[in-house]
Design goal:
Blueprint lengths: L3 E3 L28 E4 L5 H10 L6 E5 L5 E2 L5 E2 L6 E9 L10 H12 L7 E3 L3 E3 L5 E10 L3 E9 L33 H32 L4 H4 L1 H8 L6 E5 L13 E8 L5 E4 L5 E4 L3 E4 L16
Parallel strand pairs: 2-3
Antiparallel strand pairs: 1-2, 3-6, 4-5, 6-10, 7-8, 8-9, 9-10, 11-12, 11-15, 12-13, 13-14
GO cellular component, one term: cytoplasm
Protein name: biotin--[biotin carboxyl-carrier protein] ligase
EC number: 6.3.4.15
């Protein structure tokens, strides 16, 4: 199905904007990426990849509320009941060499927070899971390269619940709207038709804001040649990262069974290094930097649920 293209306007979204980020003023920013809205798709990542291969100019974004075969990190599925979640992929051309892109996953998280500023109280689990202050997962991010120059940035957010988990012992995820939603003023109101139309407008505005703010953050990092300290994004990310100060378990992302990973361990997250790695202080007092892997926050009480969550899309 050919996507219906929606050109989004420049400037601040009605979802709120942080406003204190270094970089160009809103009226000096390039036009935001055009937004292609799909009624349904198996994966926005795959749809955007196909558009790139067909010669679409970057940057652009693909968005749906009905994703049937999405995926996350380590190949984990993203399940999206129609209308239950938002899936978006931003396709862009990078000016950085691959070895200068270590901060890309982290600053994408900052872009998502910017798009949701004023909507809900949220933070980031390293490197870029979107969490509520009590540790429930609202969304996730997936970055995939397409050739040497192109990047596909996938974002999945839970819009509505409740969400039924395959693992009943898992920490319940969060969602934005409806009963139990974390968005400020989340309750739906008005006649059914009116509510449905307002909801479409709201989710379209959110998708447009996500694409624009993520592209802003990536462009800012590109301008500073991947140096997040110089761009100010290192300090902003450190302030937003809920992992810092937490006890964590970690293992390599390529190892399916953590028990079989000789590099696995536990420690306290103390800071983010200049390359975006998570610096951990181990029980013996040593420090090690983790640049890639699976991080789980340790709970402080024996009655707490495991930090394993499933999201859609």
């Amino acid at each position: 199905m050919a996507p219906a293209e929606q050109q989004v306007g420049p400037g601040r979204s009605d979802l709120g904007h942080g406003g204190d980020r270094p970089g160009p003023a809103p009226d000096e920013r390039p036009a935001p990426p055009p937004l292609h809205v799909l009624e349904t798709t198996s994966s926005t990542q795959d749809a955007a990849r196909e558009m790139l291969r067909d010669g679409a100019a970057t940057p652009f974004a693909v968005h749906t509320l009905d994703q049937r075969g999405g995926r996350g990190r380590l190949g984990r599925p993203w399940r999206t009941p129609p209308g239950g979640g938002l899936a978006l992929t931003l396709a862009r051309t990078s000016s950085l060499r691959p070895d200068r892109r270590s901060w890309y996953p982290l600053v994408v998280g900052l872009g998502v927070l910017e798009a949701l500023a004023g909507t809900a109280e949220l933070g980031l689990k390293w490197p870029n899971d979107l969490l509520t202050p009590d540790g429930r997962k609202l969304g996730g991010i997936l970055l995939e390269a397409e050739g040497q120059e192109h990047l596909l940035v996938g974002v999945g957010l839970n819009l509505r619940g409740p969400i039924v988990l395959e693992d009943p012992s898992a920490l319940p995820p969060a969602w934005l709207h409806g009963e139990g939603g974390v968005a400020h003023g989340h309750a739906d109101a008005g006649p059914e038709g009116e509510a449905a139309g307002a909801e479409d407008d709201r989710e379209g505005a959110l998708a447009a804001a996500l694409a624009a703010r993520i592209e802003d953050e990536l462009r800012l990092l590109d301008v500073h040649e991947g140096d997040a300290v110089a761009s100010g994004q290192h300090s902003r990310y450190s302030m937003a990262c809920l992992t810092l100060g937490c006890g964590v378990r970690f293992h390599a992302a390529t190892v399916a069974d953590p028990a079989a990973d000789s590099s696995a361990g536990a420690g306290t997250a103390v800071r983010i290094d200049a390359d975006g790695g998570l610096v951990l202080r181990t029980p013996d007092g040593d420090e090690r930097s983790v640049s890639a892997g699976d991080i789980r926050h340790l709970r402080t009480t024996s009655t707490s649920l495991p930090d394993h969550q499933e999201i859609h899309p």
